Amino acid sequence: MVRDARDAAGARVGLDIGATKILGVVVAADGTVLAQARETTVAGPDGVLASAGAVLERLAAAAGGSLPAVIGVGVPGIVDRAAGAVKHAVNLGLDGDWFPLAARIGARAGDLRQPGAGAARVTLENDLNAATWGAHVLSGADDLAYVSLGTGLAAGFVLDGVLRRGAHGAAGEIGHVPVDPAGELCSCGQKGCLELVASGSAVTAAWPSPDLPAAEALFAAASAGDPAAVAARDRFVHGVADAVRMLGLTVDPAVIILGGGVANLGAPLRDAVAATLRTQAATSPFLASLDLASRLRLVPQGMPVGALGAAMIGDAG
C-alpha cells in the first residue's frame, strides 16, 4: 500500500483475472496504487466469481469498508465490452457461450458498498489491452507497444494516446506470426509461430526447472557457461528481438515496453535483447537508423500493470 486507500478521492478498483491468480488493486485517480489483494483462481463460472469476490472483500476492507464505484476487469478471452461478457476464456473454464462477467462482478461489488452509495460501474476489457493501458499509465508514453512475454506472446498498442484494439480484437497477436515453415505445430493450427520460440512456454519447454522460474534458471545456467543453456537462451532472446523488430518495422512506436512473467528477469533480459537488436542492425544501415534497442523499457518489477490498467481502462474509451 502506498498510502491510505480510505483517503483517496476518485479511487478505482482494478481486477486482473488470470488462470492461476486474481490480482486486485485500489488506485487513486492519478494511478497511484493504494492497496493490493491476491487470490488463487478457481476455474469455472462459480469459482471465478468466488475468487474475484474474495479479492473484492479484501479491497473493500482496505478502502474503509466500502468499494469505490468504478471497477475495471481485465480477463483473457474474447470480450464484448458493450455487453460486459466474455467467451473462449478456456483457461478460466469460461469456454461456453457468452458469460456476463461484468454484471456478476457488479452484483458482488454492490454488496460491498455502503447503503445508498449506488451500484458499482464495471468495465470489462481483454487482459492484454488492460496491461497495455497500465504500461501507458506507468510510463506516461502516448505512443508505445507493450510486449507481453507470458505463457504466450502478444503485443498491445497505445498510439497517439489511443488504445488500439483492432477491428476484430486481434491487434498485436504477433505470437501467431509464422516464422519457421518447417517448425512445430502451434496451438493456433499454424506451424512455426513466433511464440513457440519467444514466450514463457517456450522457455519452460527448453529449460524446465523444478525450483526456479524457468527463465530465471535458464539465464543463470547460461551465465554459468552451460553450453546448452547458452544456446537455449540465445534462441529465446533472438525470438524476442525478432518480435521487437517486427513491431518497429510495422508500427514504429516511440517506446517498446517488455512485460509479462518472463520480464521479471529485469535488466538481464532487456540488455540481452538490446544487444541482439544492435547485432542485427550492425549490417543494416536502415535498421541502425531506427535504433530499436534504445526504445526498450521494462515494466517496473512488482508493479501490477494488468490490474492497474484495468482500474484505469475507462480512460481509454
From TrEMBL:
Keyword Kinase part of the UniProt annotation: yes
This protein's record includes keyword Kinase: yes
GO molecular function: kinase activity
Keywords: Kinase, Transferase
Domain of life per record: Bacteria
Pfam families: ROK
PANTHER family: N-ACETYLMANNOSAMINE KINASE, ROK (REPRESSOR, ORF, KINASE) FAMILY
Similarity remark: Belongs to the ROK (NagC/XylR) family.
Name of the protein: Sugar kinase
Source species: Pseudofrankia asymbiotica
